[in-house]
Amino acid sequence: MSSHHLATPAFVIEPGQDPVTIFEKHRAELQRSRLFMNIAMAVLFALLLAVSIYVSKFYPDRLWAGLPRIFEYFGTVMPNLEADNLFAARQANGKAVPGSILYWYSDLGKYLQLLFETVLMAITATMLGAAIAFLLSFPAARNLAPLRWINVLARRTTEVLRGVPEIIIALLLVFALGIGPLAGVLAIAIHTAGALGKLFSEVNENASMRPVEGLRSVGGTWWDEMRFGIVPQVLPNFVSYSLLRFEINVRSSSIVGFVGAGGIGQELNHTISFYNDDRVMAVLILIVLLVTVIDLISERLRTHLVGRENLI
Amino acid sequence: MLEFSGLTKAFGNHKAVNNITLTIPQGQMVGVIGRSGAGKSTLLRMINRLAAPTEGQIRFDGRDVSALKGRDLLAWRSECAMVFQQFNLVGRMSVINNVLMGRIFHHSFATAMLQAFSAEERALAIRALDRLGMAHTALQRAETLSGGQMQRVAIARALVQRPKVMLADEPIASLDPLNAKVVMDALRRINQEDGITVLANLHTLDTARTYCDRIVGLMSGAVVFDGTPDQLTDRQAREIYGAEADDAFSEGVTSTMLTPRAQAADTFDSAA
Amino acid sequence: MSAVKAMTVSAADIAAARAQFPDAFGNPRARLFTAICWALALGYFGWSLWYFEFWKLFAFNERAIRMFQHFFVWEHMGEWDYAGIYQGLAETIAMAFLGTLLGSVAALLIAFAAARNTMPRNIVRHVVRRFLDLLRGIDSLIWALVFVRAVGLGPLAGVLSIFVSDTGTLSKLYSEAIENVDRKQVEGIRSTGASPIRIMRFGYLPQISPVFISLSLYSFESSVRSATILGIVGAGGIGKVLVDRFRAGYFDQVAFVVLNILICVFVIDWLSGKVRAHFIGEKPH
Questions:
Q1: pTM of this structure
Q2: C110 and C18 belong to one structural domain
Q3: C171, C107: one domain
Q4: Interior CA angle at C35 toward C28 and B138, to 5°?
Q5: Which of B77, B89, B141 sits opposite A219 (nearest CB)?
Q6: Total count of domains within chain C
Q7: Do residues B50 and A219 touch, judged by C-beta distance below 8 A?
Q8: Residue B18: which residues within 8 A CB-CB, separation 6 or more?
């Protein structure tokens, strides 16, 4: 509450009045109004806290009872590694030695195949979603839409598409299309189309309209105006946002499997729900690694691409 | 021949252009002068229909262009080129592609989207750039150019439209004196060599006097002077410019002649 | 009246221009490169659709059509368990609120250990940061699944999962805010002869507290979104209501619940914007 008060003085000292008295009076007023707002906020906060605790039954005794179980659980999912056998090779009968990494990751082949599928899902969904978002972003930008109702329609479309969480869309699509990655890809693509559609249209709204006017003056159509007046300006931002979204989508594609929509999530759900052993940790570590590696690659790509000259 | 009859543009109750009737023969170079807000830009933007007239007609060679719609409207815009104060180029595109945008009307949706310009069009663009002394920058990005260079590229874009009329909306208001002279010389040369009608909004009287065959003075959207530069007396000019007279007169000197540094810098500041 | 002499080009002009600026006529190498890029992208896209068995899309079965019909045709609305639905919605908001609150408190402590200007020991800072990366790298839904196994079904697991992922996110954002503190203001306070605690109170706190509140509010908004789905793995909230209705085949109620989630998220965003405006003085977007 500071800078924007500078333009208009909060109180004016008339000639002949005592500045201190006026200041004190003003200060008292200000404090009263502040105090009221702050008390209101505090009461609201306390109320919300109480209701939240009541509704979610987040009572201290439950928490204390739960805490040891959390540590206990993490104890059970820790791998049982033995220093001596850590790098032990398979035995003659083809079985891995208990306590070795090989034993811990005996399902590695399956995991890798699922990780591969997870990344493919994220890439395809990002491509599909970004393509739809690209098409939506021009009518959804207030300054570019050819007609008002088209603008409203496009904006509502992006809002609905991004409003529903992808896992809920995935749930419905698995029911409609059957178990498998297709439902996941489509669900993530739909959500991506909405989320990127909004971001893209905001970029479009910030673009300079001068090139558009230039294109119009030479007799270009609306499509020409978009293609040459806007796209060259916004493309680097679009690419950057799409890569950021890709990072998010890798996370999403690793969880849509919880509802049967493909990817590593299906395996994670399975291991957590049915086994109480180190396989849980094995899959979790792989997911964290995947997400970290993808973030690193995508960041590299982003700085590389945006810095480049000819993106048009 | 370009004819306006009763041309009016109203924004709410305010009439930016009020009942203008004029006839401009083919090949004339006309300077439109007036203080800011006199309706100069609105008039020009109505001619190639970036703005729609509220009342009245614009006729070109007998054809009513103020009623055009759809493809015919785009065709008219492609015949009636426009040069802007801020150049309106696509910054991230190469100079030659910017110039080729002048041919976009003649392309189908697919060839336009793919930028599939013919060799003839490309050669035309290079020739147009060459006429303005800009051919050497053809493969650079437009945003790497200076203001004066950008305006010359914009004029090259207008040229490849093979227009009959060229509108210039304050073409030199954002330029320093030297570049202003280069750009005005180019417009005058195009007018004389190609026989293209040039209509330019000019904020400086001296430029208009030096380059134009005919001067039209606007005040509150109406024509208050129409004649040759010789016919325009100082008294009339002062009346047209009103409170801005001193600026217009002194800037007139600085923007067409090379002057001492201080004055040049002053002009640039007031333009920017 | 003179006639217009439009610019023309002869064959000689074309040849001359081509000789002078060969690249202006399309660089065949660049064109090939672009074509290959497009071919690769489209090729990948087509292949991946095939890999994902896209033809299933066109094999829409009876029950799918029934599902979509029920999204729009709502039946027996009088018999719906509205109390259960709104209880679930309240639970969702409660989970998000408690999780964000606890996460903010934890982040308040951790952030100082992750900021460069308050934690001079590089090793500690790096360990803390990697730990935070780990918390953030695992999606809140995965945390929920883990906590459901650990503490059982219900909102407690939801609160914990939001707490953990918010701790990761907020600690990082808080520490960035601490690093961005304006040193000049701190020096100004120090120059008045203030004690270290007063320097904290008047030099640091006024700068970081509005940022912290704003970040926590943003975090709350995003937590409400993630809390809506935690019920899918049994961690309480509206997600559980949704999945129950879905499994039972009440698709009209599913549509109703989704609509309620959309409205709820919208209202929370709007309210949070208002509160932010009160604390920061920034206009709500």
A1: 0.84
A2: no
A3: yes
A4: 45
A5: B77
A6: 2
A7: no
A8: B8, B39, B220, B221, B222
Contact residues, C window 220-249, toward A, CB-based 8 Å cutoff? 225-226, 228-229, 232-233, 236, 242-243, 246
Confidence of residue B266 (pLDDT cuts 50, 70, 90): very low
Average of per-residue pLDDT values in chain A: 86
- How far is the alpha carbon of A291 from chain C, nearest alpha carbon, in Å? 7
Indicate if C140 and C235 belong to the same structural domain.
Answer: yes
Q: Is the pLDDT of residue A180 over 60?
A: yes
Residue C1 in domain:
no
> Residue B260 pLDDT more than 70?
no
Beta-bridged to residue B188, according to DSSP, are none
Q: In terms of domains, do C50 and C97 share one?
A: no
pLDDT of residue C138: 87
Closest CB to A218 among B91, B113, B157: B157
Range of the domain at C97: 81-280
How far C8 CA sits from the closest chain B CA (Å)? 7
A229 touches chain B (CB under 8 A): yes
Q: Do A210 and B84 touch (CB under 8 A)?
A: yes
Contact A267, A181 (CB under 8 A): no
Which of A138, A208, A217 has the most B C-beta neighbours within 10 Å, making it the best mutation to test the interface with B?
A217
- Residue A308: pLDDT band (50, 70, 90) is low
The answer to whether position C66 is within a domain reads: no
Residue C232 lies in a domain: yes
In a domain, C156, yes or no: yes
Lookup: tokens for B185: 């010389």
Residue B259: the pLDDT is 40
**Is the model's pLDDT at B163 over the cut of 90?**
yes
Identify all chain A residues contacting B81, using CB atoms and an 8 Å cutoff.
217-218
Q: State whether C20 and C139 are in the same domain.
A: no
Tokens of B204: 């400086």
SS in 3 state form for A137-156? Answer: HCCCCCCCCCCHHHHHHHHH
What pairing do the DSSP bridges indicate for beta strands B197-201 and B29-33?
A: parallel
Per the structure, how many domains does chain B have? Answer: 1
Nearest to A218 among B86, B91, B161 (CB): B161
Nearest to C18 among B119, B160, B164 (CB): B119
Cα separation, C9 vs B122, whole angstroms: 10
Q: Give the whole-angstrom CA distance, residue A118 versus residue A251.
A: 9
* Residue B97: per-residue pLDDT: 92
Q: B24: domain range? A: 2-271
Q: Assess whether pLDDT exceeds 60 at residue A195.
A: yes
CATH number at residue B117: 3.40.50.300
